[in-house]
Each structure stands twice: as C-alpha cells, then as structure tokens.
Amino acid sequence: MASDSARFQAFRDDEASINKKLPKELLLRIFSFLDVVSLCRCAQVSKAWNVLALDGSNWQRIDLFAFQKDVEGPVIENISRRCGGFLRKLSLRGCQSVGDGSMKTLALLCQNIEDLNVNDCKKISDTICTALSRHCHKLQRLNLDGCPLITDKSLKALSDGCVNLTTINISWCSNITENGVEALARGCPKLTCFIAKGCEQITSRGVICLARYCSNLEVMNLMGCGTIRDEAVQALAERCPKLHYLCLSSCSALTDASLLALAQYSTMLSTLEVAGCAQFTDAGFLALARSCRYLEKMDLDGCVLITDATLIHLAMGCPRIEYLTLSHCELITDEGIRHLSMSPCAAENLTILELDNCPLVTDASLEYLTSCHNLQRIELYDCQLITRAGIKRLRNYLPMIKVHAYFAPVTPPPMGSTARSRYCRCCAIL
Q1: How far apart are CA 33 and CA 414, in angstroms?
Q2: Over residues 41-51, mean pLDDT
Q3: Which of 52, 102, 122, 425 is the most exposed place for a label (fewest CB within 10 A)?
Q4: Neighbours of 406 (CB within 10 A)
Q5: The whole model's pTM is what?
Q6: Counts of helices then strands in the chain (DSSP H, E)
Q7: Which has the closest alpha carbon to 350: 333, 325, 380, 385?
Q8: How far apart are the C-alpha atoms of 61 and 418, rounded to whole Å?
C-alpha cells in the first residue's frame, strides 16, 4: 500500500496536473470561495498553492472568530500587509488581545475596508476610530459593541471622516453620551441602522438629533436607554418613515404617547420590542394594531397593564405576526388566547408564542392553540395552571412543537416534630 507521502505527492508537486491544466486566474477564482481555515490548509499543500492561497485577492472577507483566543497584534499586521487594498470585510469579534497599534496599521494599509467588526475587543480605544476617520473613507458598517474604552471622541472622529457610514453598533459603550450621538448624526446622514443597547447616557436629545439628520433610519435599537422619553420616539416616528425595526425594551419612562406616534407615522414597522415598558396600555396597542399591519415580531414582555383587549386588537389588525412574547403580562387570560387562535396570523404565520409567568392562562389556552398549525415553540415557564396533561394534548395535535415548561416539585410533607427533615425544598429543586 502506498504511503501517505506518496499518495499526496501530486498535491505537493508544483507541477501537479491541476496546476498545469488550469490557469492561475481560474485557480484564484476557486480559492476565493474558501474560508480562512481552508485557505491556510491549502497554503501548506505546495509552493504554488501557498502563493495562490495567500494572494490578497482571496482575503477580501475575513472572520477570525474561530481563532479569537490566539489572535494578537502581529497577526492583524500580517493580514493588513497581505490584503492591503483588497480587504473589504473583517470580523475580529471576541479577539480581546488585539490593541490599538495593530488596528492603526490595519487602517493605514487597508483603506478600502467597508465592514469592520471589533465586538468585544476590550483593549481598543478611541485611537482606532481616529485612524479609521483618517484613512478608511469607504467604511460603511462598524461594530463597536462591548468596547468599554470607546467615548464620544470616537463618534466625533467618525463624523469627520466616515461620511458613508450606514450601520453602527455602540452597545454597552457606557462612556458615550448624547454629545457623541449628535456629532455622529450631523456627520453621517446616510445612517440606516443605529444600535445602542445599554448606553444609559444617551438621552432624548441624542435620539432627536438622529431623527433630524438621519431620515433614512430603518433599524433603531435603544434597549436599556432608560432616560429616553416620548418626545424622542415621536421624533423618530415623524422623521424616519422607513423605520421597520424598533427596540425600546427597558425604556421604562415611555407612555402610550410613543405608541400613538408610531401608529400615526410608522406604518412600515415589522418588529417592535418593548419589553419592560410597564406604562403601555391597551389604548396604545389598539392604535398600533389599527395602523401597523406589517408587524411580524412583537415583544411585550413585562407590559403588565395590557389585558385580553390588546390580543383582540392584534388578532384583528396584524395578520403577519410570527413571534409574539406576552411573558409576565399577568392580566392575559384564556379569552385573549382564544381570540388570538382564531386570527389570520394564528392560522398562517404564528410560529413562536411566549407566555412565561402568565398566571391566569390554563389548559384551555392550549386547546385553542391546536388550530395554530405553524406553531413551532411555546414558552410556559411558571404558568401554574398549565398541566402536563394539557401539554400532552397539545402535542397530540402539533407533534413537532417545542414546549418549554417548568413544573415545581411537590413540597415534601412536613415531618414529625421529633424528626429532622432529610432534605429541604432547595435540594428537591436541584
């Protein structure tokens, strides 16, 4: 039997038939479809393949997430030199050893980059955005999620040199304030996507500036920006007619005035996430359901004031709903679920329904949901009136459905006064 070295001799030989029969341009084209790992493996086959695999034209889109723990500055600098002007998209998500020095080299050598992801690269600072502003004027998408050293200085730099920016994620950059957001809005009017989860220093003024200068906004995520008020949502609704994704979860100061503004102006909404907005009522969702017929995903977790009336309105007005979260909506009853189950969305589109901690929901709701033939997952944690028998009946009708439920163990009967309990309730749960 031939040895492994003999078996693969053809592939190690620079004069292998594939290299003779196919022109270099075609081989490069084939290599361009390979990921980073495959290119590195091909580079070890032969000298000819090494040259082909490491050709900068094959490294236009790079994702180093699989190597995140091993990626350090010299790796980024080598990639920058190899790729040069070819590099268009680079993801360094989770590469926490990468610092400012190597990123400055990247910006200087890869000036055609359009999409850069440095999510969770905790060592980088405002220096990177200053370098991008100076050298990378084609930058369109930038992810700074989880970079705690980033401040308003970065956004001001981007507004000066990256006017083509369309998407930015500054989530959990806790040092960014409304001043940085205002500068970004003034300098980057092409923004269509703004994500700022957990940026507690961004106030209504910053959001209003975005609405004023970036009228093409389509995606806005302000989860956890707790100081946002109704006037900010009203400005977004009035000035950004293309808005279709809006997350206001944990913006607890908002009232029905926000929902009324969205109902009046944001008729293209497809996703609305308002978990934890405890001041919203049936009146706001009634207006929304009458106008926003394209809604597909709604997260109403913790909207504690809504009742079955909201479900009745959504059932009548929103036939496209696929994903609906009603967890911790403690006033929802079987009657609301009954109306939902008879709606056009239930018959055709509803795939995920979350009902965690809805104490008034019983097995009757599960009976109604048997008509939802596309339902794929239902959440029933801590629904105390739901039984195993009810879930079993639901599965008889929808055998492929995933049911997530929790049933607390039965409390052990009290022991006699002279005997010590063998275990506590905590141990029983564990």
Answers
A1: 67
A2: 78
A3: 425
A4: 12
A5: 0.87
A6: 21, 14
A7: 325
A8: 72
